[in-house]
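Reading a protein record of the kind used here takes only a little practice. The record below shows the convention in full:
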Amino acid sequence: MGCHQREVRFSIDMMNSYTPVKNQGKNQTCWAYAMLAAIETEHIMRGDSVHLSVAWIERVVEQHPQAPQSKRGMGATLLQLIQQHGVVPYDAMKSADDIPPKHAFMLGVTYTPLEFARSVCAPDEYIALTSTDKQPYYQYVDIDLPDNWLHNRFYNIPMDSLLAKTERAVRQHHGVCWESKNHAMAIVGIGHNEKGAPGFVMKNSWGSNRPNDGLDFLSFKSFARKTLAVEMTKEAFACSASR
């Protein structure tokens, strides 16, 4: 995923809790920042504080034989990588230059990175969604783009249903990862722009030294036009209403 988003002014109507905004710098790993941020918000909603290491994911990608040199990927890529290679807390590996730890520690418990990953994201806990009228709805389809280098499959639903389910999931305080062809962000709230148009408040990964402390806005109209994929828990998907 690349990284280009126009800044707009907006007002917040409701917000979910989220971990501090980070800065991906020149790395093209916004997909990893966004998906980890969604997992973190999901855990905060459950009363559990989790802060995960993007640096660990960057190291895994560097060593993965299928990964592109650009390190681009998708939220579903992140979910598969942590199930296969684990993850560690943010404080255990803040930089890709750090030595990867052999163990993760949380609340007095020692985990291997793989055990820790499965404690914060159970296998098959999340569902990857897309919307394209070029393939059958209500089936799992491939997104044939280089970013989907692990060939994950996405459940294809109509766009109005995808928007409604995403809005409902956010209002019920679930963590959601959103992706276009060029960028990925976590959805952390609902708001409206200067013209009153409703939309999502997004946690970006361009650092907090920006307007709105690093948060951005995506109108529902832009969501319908730009969305490539959305990841949320199967619980969030099942309980969210469709239009």
